[in-house]
């Protein structure tokens, strides 16, 4: 899975815990989008999480 170019947010791992307390593996995927952005003065396609997009940390191309 991709990681955020700005904050390095990625996939988180953990357990599903049932009512009887049996555990199975589970994945939480971050909301990451493929975006054309300005990086070092040039246009690049990068993966960015939506929280970084909303906060204005990314300058869209």
UniProtKB/TrEMBL annotation:
Any one GO CC term of this protein is: ribonucleoprotein complex
Superkingdom, natural source: Bacteria
InterPro entries in UniProt: Bacterial_rp_bL28, Ribosomal_bL28, Ribosomal_bL28/bL31-like_sf, Ribosomal_bL28_bact-type, Ribosomal_bL28_sf
Q: Does the keyword Ribosomal protein apply?
A: yes
The record's keywords, sorted A to Z, are:
Ribonucleoprotein, Ribosomal protein
- Biological process, per Gene Ontology: translation
- Output one GO MF annotation: structural constituent of ribosome
Identify the HAMAP family for this entry. Answer: Ribosomal_bL28 (MF_00373)
Q: Which protein family is named in the record?
A: Belongs to the bacterial ribosomal protein bL28 family.
- The protein in question is named Large ribosomal subunit protein bL28
Q: Which organism is it from?
A: Eubacterium ruminantium
């Amino acid at each position: 899975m991709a990681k955020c170019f700005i904050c390095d947010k990625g996939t988180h791992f953990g357990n599903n815990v049932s009512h009887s307390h049996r555990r199975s593996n589970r994945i939480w995927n971050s909301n990451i989008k493929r975006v054309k952005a300005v990086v070092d003065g040039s246009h690049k396609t990068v993966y960015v999480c939506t929280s970084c997009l909303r906060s204005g940390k990314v300058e869209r191309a």
